Amino acid sequence: MKIEKVFLCTILITLSLPLLGAIPGNLELAALQEEVNQAILDVRDAKASRWPTVDLELSGTYMSNPLIGPITLPAGSLSLAPLTPPSDVTLYDGMESSMYDFSVNITQPLFTWGKINASVDAQEAIAEAKLQELHNREKELMAEISTRAVTITSLEAISQLLKQQYSLGRELVSLASEGVASGMMLELEKLETETALQDIELAILESDYTVTEQRLNLQTLTSNQDLSSYSFDEQAIEEMLQLPVETLIETSISPRQASLRALSALKKATEAAERLAKGSFYGKPDLALVMSAGYSSPNFPLSESDWSDQDAYSVTVSVGLKTTLFDGGKIANSIKRAESQEETATLDLEQARQRIIQEVQQQYLLLKTSMQKIDLEQRKQTTLEQRVRTNEELYQSGYGKKEELLQAEMNLLSSQIREHQLNIEAWSAFQTLHYLTGN
Question: Strand, helix or coil at 219?
């Protein structure tokens, strides 16, 4: 008597996808959302470059001992007696102790060879890429959560079936011990039965460990640990398999897919970066209007009655020009670098399409094969159930052995375990296709 060994498949989930509030407690999505917010602020900064910059400077100074004091003409200081002042004459009262300075500077870009518009386009493309990355990661994580949830449910069912097998195996070991004692069985057969029982016990430990591991992984993905809404949906799988793989491929590489939209946006950003670099080429001047207005006086404006009597105002209007004539080739290199980055973005987009097509083909084949195996396993169980009933009838009538009945029951449990393993495999492939196609 040998107990059929149970090989527990460890399902490695490699899906990765985010959620915009649909997955509570996910820190990765919260971080991606903040990146989107920052990108939106960058867009606003780029657009703000179109408007004038207004700077206001205010200063007030008080000196207890001014540098220039009063200037007086002493009495009798003139040589001509008729002109000699009879008393001291103050020619200049001296510097006042306070001094106020006000200035307003306005700078308005007039012409920049399209660099401002290119900068806005680049930042808008980056913001779009960040947003699509967030959408894509949300879809990915939702598929991963569903896969892990169904995996946990299936593994828990496998663990229960293994425990039933273990209970039946102990009965077989007990019967084997009686057979050895009566001389009806070799000691080696008993040891082989005990070894098989240990394999089942090891499979139970592995199953329980994997369930705990999957739950810990779920905790990092979402704070919602309720798995009741996730289940193996055979009807949804069959509906997907009714679609030709060509249809799924066409849907997966549609420009509407978030992952491809993100890459397309990055390509637009590189195109805008190239225009920005070319706008700074040698000899292309940037023009700006600069206006300045100032007030400098010891009298504070509006609060002192004679503040407007002094000629303390100044207004300046000028047009500034700035261009780079030589920098050792840095600008030329930046243009070539931008062109290379644009070509790289184009290649990345094409490679992404190829990877998606390959992944869809592989997962579709895996899903189709897994469902065929499940169907075969279910048909196999029909035969195994019939064998259990037959052996039970033989045993009850005295023509069959208890060992044969126990072995038939264990074989049925092994098939059920295999079906749950195939369910995990099929659901993982289905969720991957669901994510890639956006269905």
Answer: helix
